[in-house]
């Protein structure tokens, strides 16, 4: 609108006779109205284009973050590594303070937390909201989230957070399965060693017993 007024004044000053003076005739009101309407249309279109460009950049940043997070989460071997990775990505893009706990029946234990959570003593009751990290096997963890004042505010941001939390839940489930497999492998190796030891002892004892019986 400021540009429209400046253009009208320049038009009146340089082109309308007498030149180099301001003289507004009734016909000039039509020109002023034309300038205002054109400025309104162009400004609205430019604003919409700017909003779309900003939304596209934000969506690209979130998609890039999700891709990087999925790669890093898939390569995290333990639940602690998964929790630290998830908290870091939520903090870096969403500007959220996060604390993540395990889903043990005996009692929850803190896996990871951002730096700002220490002021809240990592208490889920003081969090803005709490999300259960679930997969097809059930609950695998708990995420408490504190929202900062400068947090991104958009529906896409909430969808992005849910997608990232779901990736974290899948990674936690995978880390738990890997730990269970490792424990099962240790048990199998222990049983195999015990069987081999008993077999060796029975073989070593069989020879003198056979001699004694003979």
Structural account:
By secondary structure, this protein is of the alpha+beta class. It is built from 4 helices and 4 strands. The protein has helices at residues 2-14, 26-74, 79-94, 155-213, and strands at 96-102, 110-113, 129-135, 138-147. The protein has a 4-stranded antiparallel beta sheet. A hairpin with a 2-residue loop joins strand 3 (129-135) and strand 4. The protein is rod-shaped. Mean pLDDT is 82; it is low at 151-155.
Keywords for this entry:
214 residues, alpha+beta, 4-stranded antiparallel β-sheet, 4 helices, 64% helix, rod-shaped
> What is the radius of gyration computed over CA atoms, rounded to a whole number of angstroms?
34 Å
- What about the largest sheet? 4 strands, antiparallel
Span between termini: 117 Å
Mean pLDDT: 82
Count of helical stretches: 4
- For the largest beta sheet, what order do the strands appear in spatially? 2-1-4-3
Sheet-strand content, in percent, reads: 5-15%
* Parts with pLDDT < 50 across at least 5 consecutive residues: 151-155
Morphology: rod-shaped
**Total count of strands:** 4
SSE arrangement, N to C: HHHEEEEH
**Residues in helix, %:** 55-70%
Question: Which structural category do the helix and sheet elements fall into?
Answer: alpha+beta
